[in-house]
Design goal:
The protein is an alpha/beta fold. Helices cover about 55% and strands about 15% of the residues. It folds into 3 domains: about 160 residues, no CATH class; about 80 residues; about 120 residues, Roll (CBS-domain). The chain has 12 helices and 11 strands. It is elongated.
C-alpha cells in the first residue's frame, strides 16, 4: 500500500521470504501470526474458512499491488530492495528516491493493478454466467467470492488514491506539486493532508467503535510524520559535505589489543564503535554488539582482530551528506570517513541527528 525510498538495511522482524520477478518478498512476523490465526479460524467451520480465504485473497492482491510499484520502478532503473508484508498491507522499499515524474507513475501503478484485478474478476464472473451482486459484495453478506474479492480490490485501489500520505494518492499529489515547487514544500502539503485524513478516520473509528479503522488511522498519521521528517532531513543535508557532520575526536584500537582492552575503552568513553588500525592503516571496525558477543563467546583475552568487522562502510569527507545518510543506515549507523587511505573522522547516526538538530537552529556549519 506504500512505496518509498529506504536504506537497503533489512527491516527488523521479518522472518523469511521468497522472490517474485526478481524482487525479494519478506513477511513480518506479525503477518505470519495473522495468517496462522486465519487458518485456525478457517478450521472451525465453513463461514470461518470463507472469511479466511477472502482475507488471504486480499493480501495476495496487496502483494501484486506492490509488485506493480516494483515493476514500474524497474522501468525507471530503480531497484526494489524488498517488499515487506505487514498485517495492514505491504511496503515496497526502493533503493533511491524517484524523481517527480517517476514517482507519479510508480505511485499510480499500485492502484491500477487493483483495478485491473477487479476488472478481470468481474469479466470472469460474466464468462461463467454468474450474477455480480454488488450489494452483497460490499456488505460481505454471503455474496459470491469473485464479487467480494473484486469489490475488495476496488476499495483497495480507491483508498490508496486518496491524496494524502502515505497512500499512493499522496505520492501522486507530491509528484505533481514537486514538478513546480520544491520537494520539501510538496511533501509538507501532502503530509498535512495525510495527518488530516488520519484524524478524520480516527474520530470516525472512535464513534463507530471500529478499532481496525483506528489502527489504520494511526498508521496513516505515523507515515505522514515519518515522510515529513525524512524529507526535512534530506533538505538539511543537501549540498553539505560529510566533513561538516563527522566526528573528528575519537579513539582507535590496535589490531593486537584484546577484548578486555576494548571493553575498558568502551567504559571509559561515550564511543561505541572503534576503528581497528595497524599504524595508519585501517583494518576493520569493532562495534559494541560485536565486542559483547566476542566477550561472551571467546572471553576477554581474545584478540579484537577475530571479532572486528573487516567489511565496513567508508565515505569521503567530500561526499554529499544527503547521499551518505541512506548508506549510514544500511551500515548500522556508523561509517568511517576516509580521505583516500587516511582515516579523518567518523560518522554515526547519533552525531548526525545532533548535526541536523543544530542545523535546523542555524548552527550546523563549523567556523
Amino acid at each position: 500500500m506504500d512505496q518509498g525510498a529506504q536504506s537497503s538495511h533489512q527491516i527488523s522482524g521479518t522472518i523469511f521470504g521468497l522472490r517474485l520477478f526478481g524482487v525479494p518478498v519478506r513477511f513480518h512476523f506479525t503477518f505470519v501470526l495473522l495468517v496462522a490465526a486465519l487458518a485456525a479460524v478457517g478450521i472451525q467451520g465453513p463461514s470461518g474458512a470463507e472469511a479466511a480465504i477472502y482475507i488471504l485473497a486480499l493480501f495476495a492482491s496487496v502483494l501484486v499491488h506492490e509488485l506493480g510499484h516494483a515493476l514500474v520502478s524497474k522501468r525507471y532503473g530503480i531497484k526494489t530492495i524488498e517488499i515487506v508484508m505487514f498485517p495492514i498491507g505491504g511496503v515496497a522499499r526502493l533503493e533511491r528516491n524517484p524523481k517527480p515524474r517517476e514517482e507519479l507513475w510508480i505511485a499510480l501503478a499500485g492502484p491500477a493493478v487493483n483495478i485491473v484485478i477487479a476488472a478481470l474478476l468481474i469479466a470472469t464472473a460474466a464468462s461463467l454466467n454468474r450474477t455480480f451482486d454488488w450489494e452483497k459484495g460490499f456488505s460481505r453478506g454471503g455474496g459470491d467470492m469473485l464479487s467480494q474479492v473484486a469489490i475488495g480490490n476496488i476499495i483497495l485501489g480507491v483508498f490508496n488514491l486518496l491524496p494524502a500520505f502515505p497512500m499512493d494518492g499522496g505520492r501522486v499529489l507530491r509528484a505533481m506539486l514537486a514538478m513546480k515547487r520544491g520537494e520539501a514544500e510538496a511533501t509538507a502539503i501532502a503530509a498535512r493532508a495525510g495527518r488530516f485524513l488520519a484524524i478524520l478516520m480516527g474520530l470516525y473509528g472512535l464513534v463507530a467503535g471500529n478499532f481496525v479503522l483506528l489502527f489504520v488511522a494511526f498508521f496513516v498519521y505515523l507515515g505522514a510524520v515519518q515522510e515529513t521528517a525524512a524529507v526535512m532531513g534530506r533538505a538539511l543535508t543537501q549540498g553539505v559535505p560529510v566533513s561538516e557532520a563527522m566526528i573528528t575526536e575519537f579513539r582507535t584500537l590496535s589490531h593486537g589489543q584484546t577484548i578486555r582492552d576494548a571493553a575498558n575503552l568502551l567504559l571509559a568513553t561515550t564511543q561505541q564503535d572503534f576503528p581497528v588500525v595497524l599504524g595508519e592503516q585501517v583494518l576493520g571496525l569493532l562495534g559494541r554488539n560485536g565486542l559483547l558477543r566476542a566477550m561472551a563467546q571467546d572471553g576477554p583475552e581474545a584478540y579484537i582482530s577475530g571479532a572486528m568487522q573487516r567489511e565496513f562502510l567508508s565515505v569521503s569527507p567530500l561526499m554529499d551528506l544527503s547521499e551518505a545518510m541512506p548508506l549510514l543506515t544500511r551500515a548500522g549507523n556508523v561509517a568511517l570517513v576516509m580521505d583516500e587511505d587516511k582515516l579523518v573522522g567518523m560518522l554515526t547516526g547519533e552525531n548526525l541527528m545532533e548535526f541536523l538538530m543544530l542545523r535546523r537552529l542555524g548552527m550546523g556549519h563549523r567556523g
